[in-house]
């Protein structure tokens, strides 16, 4: 059966994974996509591994019912806790996202890198495995970004509370001479302008969005799933199980949005 016209499924605990959707849509504009924003259950970062796996199963099954040919887990917390289970139990390719501490460890000159991520990501076995594979001379400063996802989900990206939290998390890293800051949560690229103001220009801000889009393209090609219909731009469908206003705002500059539906799932 030729599945190539079927959509790419993408899910996140909320609206943050749209930072990955944007990269995929830019690289693969002809692909149809279905995005699931599980905002009703955000944040995932404070939940147990079992809860994260169960929510990831629910999202995967919803996307498979929409005939998705490949699923992008556009959430570090869900990837680091649930992708192994998903790959073992569903017969569809999965692409995940993990904090880019390896590339950061190759780039740092001060041998000190910072990572901002959720508790669920930093406490996961997968993250532990990746960080223990990094050269031991590299000092990794881990910081839980508590409260950041909630503010973004509530449309308060540019707010005083956000500035206070970011300063609290980033100032200690600056003092410890971090020269690479890894954004380990797909919500955080929306904070780059404020982060840049706090850390200045000397710190590299590293996120994995573009790498995920490239990996998605590579897997589609190797699995013969790429949509070769270059006559027409893909259709992009978004589902959210909470008020859709914040999602509409975050996507407002994208012309290729087809539909945003508020729906229970
Ligand atoms: N976007 C999710 C991530 O990349 C946010 C996690 C959460 O909901 O706490 O980790």
UniProtKB/TrEMBL annotation:
This is Glutamate racemase. Belongs to the aspartate/glutamate racemases family. Its EC number is 5.1.1.3. One of its GO terms (molecular function) is glutamate racemase activity. PANTHER family: GLUTAMATE RACEMASE. Signal peptide: none annotated. The active site is at residues 75, 185. It catalyses: L-glutamate = D-glutamate. Provides the (R)-glutamate required for cell wall biosynthesis. Keywords: Cell shape, Cell wall biogenesis/degradation, Isomerase, Peptidoglycan synthesis. GO terms for biological process: cell wall organization; peptidoglycan biosynthetic process; regulation of cell shape. Substrate binds at residues 12-13, 44-45, 76-77, 186-187. Pathway: Cell wall biogenesis; peptidoglycan biosynthesis. InterPro entries: Asp/Glu/hydantoin_racemase, Asp/Glu_race, Asp/Glu_racemase_AS_1, Asp/Glu_racemase_AS_2, Glu_race. The lineage of its organism: Bacteria, Pseudomonadati, Bacteroidota, Flavobacteriia, Flavobacteriales. NCBIfam families: glut_race. It holds the Pfam family Asp_Glu_race. Gene3D superfamilies: 3.40.50.1860.
């Amino acid at each position: 059966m030729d599945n190539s016209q079927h959509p790419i499924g993408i899910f996140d605990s909320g609206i943050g994974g749209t930072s990955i959707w944007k990269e995929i849509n830019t690289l693969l504009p002809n692909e149809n996509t279905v995005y699931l924003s599980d905002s009703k259950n955000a944040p995932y970062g404070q939940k147990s591994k079992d809860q994260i796996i169960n929510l990831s199963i629910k999202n995967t099954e919803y996307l498979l019912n929409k005939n998705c040919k490949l699923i992008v887990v556009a959430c570090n917390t869900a990837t680091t806790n649930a992708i192994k289970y998903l790959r073992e139990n569903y017969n569809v390719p999965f692409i995940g996202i993990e904090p880019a501490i390896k590339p950061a460890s190759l780039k740092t000159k001060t041998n000190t890198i910072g990572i901002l991520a959720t508790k669920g990501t930093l406490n996961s076995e997968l993250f532990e495995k990746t960080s223990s594979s990094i050269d031991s001379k590299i000092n990794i400063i881990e910081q839980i970004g508590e409260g950041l996802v909630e503010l973004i989900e509530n449309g308060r990206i540019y707010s005083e509370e956000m500035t206070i939290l970011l300063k609290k998390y980033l100032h200690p890293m600056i003092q410890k001479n971090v020269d690479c800051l890894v954004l380990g949560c797909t919500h955080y690229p929306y904070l780059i302008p404020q982060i840049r103001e706090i850390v200045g220009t000397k710190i590299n801000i590293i996120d994995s969005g573009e790498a995920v889009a490239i990996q998605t393209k590579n897997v589609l090609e190797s699995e013969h799933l790429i949509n070769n219909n270059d006559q027409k731009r893909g259709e992009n469908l978004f589902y959210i199980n909470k008020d859709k206003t914040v999602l509409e705002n975050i996507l407002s500059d994208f012309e290729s949005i087809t539909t945003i539906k508020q729906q229970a799932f």
